[in-house]
Amino acid sequence: MTRLVDRVRRRLGMRVRDPEAVPPPPAVRLVLAGAVPGAVVRLLPSALVLLAVALAAPHPVLWLGGLAAAVLVAWRPAWPTVPVLLLVLGVWLLGGEDRLTPARVAGGGLLAVAALVAVVHLLVRMAALSTHVTWDGLVEVPVLLRLLRSVAGMQVVVQALVLATVWLRGNLGLSTLGQGWVRLVAAVAVVAVVLVVLPRPWLVRRPPRIEESARYD
Predict the structure, then answer these.
(1) Which of 11, 19, 38, 201 has its CA 20 to 30 A from that of 29?
(2) What is the reported pLDDT for 212?
(3) Looking at residue 70, what is its pLDDT?
(4) Is residue 24 situated within a structural domain?
């Protein structure tokens, strides 16, 4: 476009603007004090994936799946890798041995389950954040602190439910009965609690927002 204007100006005998006389647009670089590199935010979900696999089911097959999921989460964070991984781990735990029997709880099983619940929650939130972060970007510390506060607030309720489950099973004699119905009730209760606790805007599908972009020739 600029060359065409210059050619027309020459034909009309008008003065052509010297391109070197026009300074280039200034480069703007924001310096955020104490900001976290985007690469750290992109890699943190991968570390949480491996930690979740280690706490849930340290099986060789699941370790291979966990390593593949860790790579995909960092490479393509927008892909539904984390939901698929959590679905596989959930089915594995549901079909595996009971981890909240009195014997397992006394041997440290309660801490492992509580840690797994917290890691899974943090993994979901960090994976969602990483979809908006580039490798060479920066994330302000208040953004991460706000995320951690929201996770901590939810974990107060969730960890209380875990402790209540252990107490009910230990004091009402439920540990001696079949655990199939206990797991079914627990799954339904978790879904109900999530629907009650989650903010309503999260459950409402919003239309995509179209952002206008300016083009400069």
Answers:
(1) 19
(2) 42
(3) 95
(4) no
- State how far the Cα of 167 lies from the Cα of 89, in Å rounded to an integer: 25
Confirm whether 21 is domain-assigned.
no
What tokens were used for 82? 């984390």
The alpha carbon torsion through 40, 45, 49, 54 (nearest 10 deg) reads 50
In the chain, beta strands by DSSP E: 36-37, 138-139
Is 108 inside a domain boundary? yes
The whole-model pTM stands at 0.69
3-state helix, strand, coil in the chain (%, to 5): 70, 0, 30
Q: 139 by DSSP, 3-state: which?
A: strand
Contact 123, 48 (CB under 8 A): yes
70-111: per-residue pLDDT in tens?
Answer: 999 999 998 999 989 988 888 888 777 777 777 777 777 788
Supply the pLDDT for residue 63. 92
Domain carrying residue 169: 37-200
Q: Is residue 213 part of a domain?
A: no
User: Looking at this protein, which amino acid is placed at residue 174?
Assistant: L
Give the SS3 label for residue 36.
Answer: strand
Q: Given its phi and psi angles, is residue 130 left (phi above 0), alpha (psi -120 to 50 degrees) or beta?
A: alpha
